[in-house]
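Morning. Coffee machine broken again, so started the prediction first thing and wrote up yesterday's gels while waiting. Chain of 196 residues, entered below exactly as on the submission form.
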Amino acid sequence: HTPGSKDAPPTKDAPGKKDDGPPPANQGYAAAAPYGYPGAPSGTVYASRGLRLVARIVDGILTGAVTLALAWPILQPIFKAASDATTAGQTVSVTAETFKITLIGLVVSGIYEVTLLGLKGATLGKMLVGVRVQPIAGGKLSWGQAALRWAGAGVPSAIPTIGGLYGLLNVLWCLWDSKRQCLHDKLPKTVVVPSR
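Came back before lunch.
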């Protein structure tokens, strides 16, 4: 060493390694979905409310026609009894028969919706207008989700008195929901998206 010279302090980095400074903020960390609720993939487009309404009307006509055909043996005596009661100035109770018809309708709609949603992700009405049902996070709808989605709409709506109010609130919910979900989409965590 020459007089007055000092040794350079050792560096912590290996020879040839460049210090780029601190890493960028939040590097390596993904933003968590709020409340632990799985979010839809970025860019997800939801089906229009109008198309969903048309699909529901088509499905209702189809399931209603099948229900009517199966329930006709129950309906015929009701019509005759009602006609006779009207002629005699009396009333007739059809509570038991109404329950049977409601039960038939539930079975028909359950088989129709769960089967088609489980296999195709869409009912005939949804296929007609070009929409389908999928999990919020994307992918294929499971059979469990298909069953929960049907139950969330069909079963409460069949309850006397309150069923009609629930059914109305259920379909109106998508008007202000950010993912355009109806109430029956909440439990299975599903959304309706365009299929074409």
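Helices lie at 49-88, 95-120, 124-129, 143-157, 162-172, 183-186. Going to sketch it on the whiteboard this afternoon.
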